[in-house]
Amino acid sequence: MLGIGVLGCGRIGAMHAANIAAHAKARVTAVYDINHAAAQAVSAITGAPVMASASEVFASPDVDAVLIATATDTHADLLEQAIAAGKPVLCEKPIDLSLTRVDRCAAAIAHTSLPVQIGFVRRFDPGHKAVFEAVHNGSIGKLHQLIITSRDPGFPPQAYLEKSGGILRDMTIHDFDMARYILGEEPARVFAVGSRLAAPTLMNVLDDEDTITVVMTTHSGKQVILMNSREATYGYDQRVEAFGSLGMAVSENRRSHHMVLSGSSFTGQAAPLLNFFIERYREAFDAEIDAFVDTVENGSPVAVSYHDGRQALVLAEAALKSLQEGRIVDVSEIG
Amino acid sequence: MLGIGVLGCGRIGAMHAANIAAHAKARVTAVYDINHAAAQAVSAITGAPVMASASEVFASPDVDAVLIATATDTHADLLEQAIAAGKPVLCEKPIDLSLTRVDRCAAAIAHTSLPVQIGFVRRFDPGHKAVFEAVHNGSIGKLHQLIITSRDPGFPPQAYLEKSGGILRDMTIHDFDMARYILGEEPARVFAVGSRLAAPTLMNVLDDEDTITVVMTTHSGKQVILMNSREATYGYDQRVEAFGSLGMAVSENRRSHHMVLSGSSFTGQAAPLLNFFIERYREAFDAEIDAFVDTVENGSPVAVSYHDGRQALVLAEAALKSLQEGRIVDVSEIG
Amino acid sequence: MLGIGVLGCGRIGAMHAANIAAHAKARVTAVYDINHAAAQAVSAITGAPVMASASEVFASPDVDAVLIATATDTHADLLEQAIAAGKPVLCEKPIDLSLTRVDRCAAAIAHTSLPVQIGFVRRFDPGHKAVFEAVHNGSIGKLHQLIITSRDPGFPPQAYLEKSGGILRDMTIHDFDMARYILGEEPARVFAVGSRLAAPTLMNVLDDEDTITVVMTTHSGKQVILMNSREATYGYDQRVEAFGSLGMAVSENRRSHHMVLSGSSFTGQAAPLLNFFIERYREAFDAEIDAFVDTVENGSPVAVSYHDGRQALVLAEAALKSLQEGRIVDVSEIG
Amino acid sequence: MLGIGVLGCGRIGAMHAANIAAHAKARVTAVYDINHAAAQAVSAITGAPVMASASEVFASPDVDAVLIATATDTHADLLEQAIAAGKPVLCEKPIDLSLTRVDRCAAAIAHTSLPVQIGFVRRFDPGHKAVFEAVHNGSIGKLHQLIITSRDPGFPPQAYLEKSGGILRDMTIHDFDMARYILGEEPARVFAVGSRLAAPTLMNVLDDEDTITVVMTTHSGKQVILMNSREATYGYDQRVEAFGSLGMAVSENRRSHHMVLSGSSFTGQAAPLLNFFIERYREAFDAEIDAFVDTVENGSPVAVSYHDGRQALVLAEAALKSLQEGRIVDVSEIG
Description:
Four copies of one chain form a homotetramer.
Chain A lengths: L1 E6 L3 H12 L3 E7 L3 H11 L7 H6 L5 E4 L6 H10 L4 E3 L7 H10 L7 E3 L7 H11 L6 E9 L6 H6 L3 H4 L1 H12 L3 E9 L4 H7 L4 E8 L4 E7 L7 E8 L2 E5 L7 E5 L2 E4 L7 H4 L1 H17 L7 H20 L3 E2 L5
Parallel strand pairs in A: 1-2, 1-3, 3-4, 4-5, 6-9
Antiparallel strand pairs in A: 6-10, 7-8, 7-14, 8-9, 10-11, 12-13
Helix pairs in contact in A: 1-2, 4-5, 5-13, 9-13
């Protein structure tokens, strides 16, 4: 039974805490949030004690590992502290919005052999994972094109957007990771276009985009297409299509059930798409905890490494540069 | 927090216990099974104490209500004892294989106002429920035909079959209940045919059928068709189709994901049907507990009544008589 | 180039004539209808001369074979005359509404070796045919249950209904044939229920049913379920499901295209079901002519025999008797 | 009855001739091909006389209009001659591989009011057209992203590839036209990547690509993504997805039927994708002729104009430049 200290008790942290509490091989042994009420709410559900500080969490003998789900700009500090305290870490993405900070943190923890897993949860989705497997077991032959569609049901709060680092760093970053996961090869060149179509006024205020297309190529010529929108009225659109020399594997959207209603002027699905990520990636969040427990307890390889966390950010930076300079960017320009 | 005592810690009981343990408004406060090891296993997961007898469960002050998931032939006795002890009951189906016993139990508990809910879990399935709603909110107009397909992925153990009361009482009974749930009207006449096609030798030994079709009609002329098989190689096939004057509502099968693989000789779903009832009706089992807690704590109407439990058995008896006598049976012949 | 004389230039006859005219190996060489204007319209499209009588068609040296698409009560007479004149026949279903007349016609043409093909067009539908093949090539193992759904988009004109012989003889008859085609075995027992739900007043006037369920069993225990309605608001519903020991084959409905529209409150097919039989079974009508030409020109076996035409009628009679007498009818009771 | 002279009796010309012959309002009145045998074969099917030269076709009083389906490098010459002879023209795409030649031809026919329709047949596909309508009738609100997938089942003959002008001019050109059709706005900037993945050796010989991704943006910020492959083992993949402020419209692939086969290790479509363009776009080829007849006979607007033919080529040129120079190309750079 792995004792996990949960740092950050907002929406994501609370969800993780509940998953850990329900997990057969893990339990929550400490919770902390700068918002004491949030920590108490999670404590009430999990039975874990509220700690007065992150340090107290790291110091607790009941805490075998920590989950970092605090505000993004605290991730790297807490990660360094956790490693210094000898605790394995499961850290929500992104590690940091600054590649410099990410690399400084990497240097600070370079000596450790403690597992650090980054929270790219979509790798654990059964459908996306099945695409990964179809690519890697030869079912579709050699991969030629990889198309990832991610559209959110609606805009997050403006306060979030102001700190998110922009759509490429906060939203497309999932797709950069998914692309690397499935490709088995690093993207070499990146091209991005962004538009302000769904909420142009807000986007102008934030100097951000709400509609994104990214094209990446690898040295071997594989083509990757990522398409994002901040707002899809029909729900949370999450698809992955891998096209190869022997076939195609497509992870389609999911619904809570499949009741089809037919009438004189329609034939349609009665259930909307699973909405939002907590529902859509429910099994994936569970599997993410499974993988972390398995790594800490059994030494199985880290499922999503610190390097993976860094590389997704590198691609986001490359895409941002492409968008700003209106040209193709070589990933090697970034780092 | 409703304290529930779990009687019976076999596959179904253990699943219910885990669901209750994970439920926000309920917890397991006692477990009992004639097989002590089974009770201990459930105790280990839920933290609830193992009791030495059912009586001890009924007597516990921590037990606000009980869930009966023991062998079928003990249901009625335990139900009577629970009511006598003042405990609300959630009882797995069927109440009993004998209609006489069911009616004797009904008489024994006639005086009580304590809630008794019968475990026809499929009523809580989101897809089937959506069909129910389409029928009752007028989306498909007046119901004309109702078609229910239930095929199990494979035969249960022979030991189970020997005591199950036959396919009509143990398997079709779910469909009799589903039919009544959606119809909003009692079937009046029943016609059944049975065949021994999947495992004829075993069926001859048991004098049972493995393939069933039942047709029922109501006084208003609605037609109901139930189709069953003990063995479907492609998985657990669970569909409901309601056809009416303004349209059709179909609850289709479900899969764990929707990865579609296309190659030179195939285009297919990579994931099989959700298999078996614990996976397929996962949300339904949760919702069943929700409904029970809501009834006990808030006095909301019983979702599946004792009468519902009885009437499904009446239809099973009528179908059995039809099958044995090779004729249409009027439900009033049964009781 | 097979010269075909077309008898009957109503909706079906005109459609057949156009198909024959467009066929690479056949042409229309004579047309006849008691309604001269109808014959002229078909003549204008096909370029074939209008004949003054059926006899004139049979006598024409340009007529190598005839297609009978006249009113049902003239089929048997014309069929006998065509055979007497030495012409192969493709005769629309049903041969006649009276089994006695069918058998008298059979006797009258018993001596001939000329091909007579009956117009059960659905056997030629690519999807239904694929189910047939899945059953007969072993893909689904041994057949256990066969479920056929046929619902018309709306009622035919009352004038048609008054002469059609009732729903079992005019509509279900297609399903009786489809069942025999796929089963590869004769149904032995028939049970039918009928209801007056879609247009009860009209049904009472006609003493007919608008909603039908038929269950049939074979000597080996295979179960067949046929479901009909005269009116489905969502269109022409044509499905066949074969369930067997190794799997299931389902011929689903078809649409003119697959544009799926998703919005905030719907996800649905933009195109309705192909409507009505001329569109839905377009390829099948072509393939039916192919088969007939192939039989006449190359001596390949008759695709749908006179016996097939008779047996579908026998099953309709059995179902009608079941419905009238409220009991299971043994097919041997009919003939 | 419009008399059409068919120039070019290869695969496409012969198909068009058969469609015209079967058309209610048109007929083939002359055929010509430099390959006399090809012309004779089409003559045999349509009954139209074989002409000794294109000039003879233009001179025939029975020829009201002409269809040009000859080799691409003869299109512009024949088009000019047809207009000079006073004949309306339906010309297969592309007008010419050289934009200079296209513009010279435009100048040569600038004076005429005779209709000239270019053969971008996909605009007439029922599914793609339904996407167009969803975009233009407001069903999906304002268009944000348009994604077009076109993958051929296999490589054309090398002889064809040597003369085709490369994948962007011969294959992607359909998608450039589809994009313009649906957008209702001209693309302003083009970015393309090409890879040699399916047949690298052949592609190196031809200095061509077999795998293409093109991204285009309009002045208003709409994003267009085109994806091509010369070889998809699973068949002819033809999809269009329009994503907008109020929803999404997707034209999915089509099959000849929908028989779904389920077994212990698969659930799949038994029919492959409709293959190849003659089958997939059968209704579209018919509707293209309809539109042309309607324009010539009733003066309805030209469905696909000469300008449309030119602009698709402009986008192909822009994409080629992008691919060659590794940069975003402004469409105004081309012409």
